Amino acid sequence: MDPFARLFGMGGGGNLRGSDSQSTLHVELEDVYKGTQRSVVLGKQKVCTKCKGTGASRGSGVTTCSHCRGHGVVIQRLQLGPGMYQDIQQACPHCQGQGRIAKHRCPACNGKKVVRGEVTLTIDIEQGIPEGHKVTFEMESDESPDLVPGDLIMTVLTKPHPRFSRRPNGLDLDMSLTVTLKEALLGFERRVEHLDGTEFLVEATGVTPYGKVLKVRGKGMPRHHMPSEKGDLYVKVMFELPSFLTEAQRKEIEEHF
């Protein structure tokens, strides 16, 4: 058996698989609420189509590297002490770890066998997908002529929203609502625009303390895979105090309070 194959596991059959790659997609909270489809363009390494991954110009061909016998690695023996040695594997400096040497390099990839390119992927943003949800695109990682491409794993993250925030349970939402002092004292009804453009009612009767949280049932995020079921919305009520009072207003407050 070839000693290189024995040392580096090159004697078995089957195709070696490349490593997986990671990517992140940032989406709007509206996308997660309504569900949508996004197309993304990503850079990736591709096998050179000019030389079909040989690294050689057309008609020139390639030869097996005589230094590493086509394995792409060589063994360097280091002496650690009297009678003590250590074998270290390193990429072959003559073929740059390729195992083969092109007689004349491909002008498109300069003999590297691969070039930088782009890939367009379509991803379904399902209603209510959890924060950090991962979508796997099989065999869409970097290409190499000697490896089966690994997978591209895309993590979906939500951008901060100016009005709504998602609770850690993924179902409930929070928002703040500013009302007038009069509304805080006497009660109010407010129509609020939701993430899908529809409106819902937030109401309170009597005195509403500053910071009170009102629960609006069924106005949270849709449950993933069960979009007809929704969480709740929690509305924190705030109000602004006047910067000054007239003398008449001051007297009226003193009379009633």
Q: Which features characterize this protein?
A:
257 residues; mainly beta; HSP40/DNAj peptide-binding domain; 3 domains; three-stranded mixed sheet; 4 helices; 17 strands; 42% strand; disordered N terminus; metal-binding; zinc-finger; Hsp70 protein binding; HSP_DnaJ_Cys-rich_dom_sf
Q: In short, what is this structure?
A:
With 257 residues, the protein is mainly β. It is 11% helix and 42% strand. Mean pLDDT is 89; it is low at 1-13.
Detailed description of the structure:
Keywords: Metal-binding, Repeat, Zinc, Zinc-finger. One of its GO terms (molecular function) is zinc ion binding. A zinc finger (CR-type) spans 35-118. Residues 35-118 form the CR-type domain. InterPro entries: DnaJ_C, DNJA1/2-like, HSP40/DnaJ_pept-bd, HSP_DnaJ_Cys-rich_dom, HSP_DnaJ_Cys-rich_dom_sf. By secondary structure, this protein is mainly beta. It has three domains: 16-56 and 104-160, Urease metallochaperone UreE, N-terminal domain (HSP40/DNAj peptide-binding domain, Sandwich), CATH 2.60.260.20; 62-102, no CATH class; 164-239, Urease metallochaperone UreE, N-terminal domain (HSP40/DNAj peptide-binding domain), CATH 2.60.260. Helix content is 11%, strand content 42%. It contains four helices and 17 strands. The chain has helices at residues 3-8, 29-34, 181-186, 247-256, and strands at 21-27, 36-47, 62-64, 73-81, 84-91, 100-102, 114-125, 133-137, 152-158, 164-166, 173-179, 187-193, 199-205, 213-216, 222-223, 226-230, 233-239. The chain has a four-stranded mixed sheet. A three-stranded mixed sheet has the order 1-9-8. A hairpin with a 6-residue loop joins strand 10 (164-166) and strand 11 (173-179). The longest helix is centred in the C-terminal third of the chain and has 10 residues, at 247-256. The radius of gyration is 32 Å and the shape is elongated. Residues 1-13 have low confidence and may be disordered.
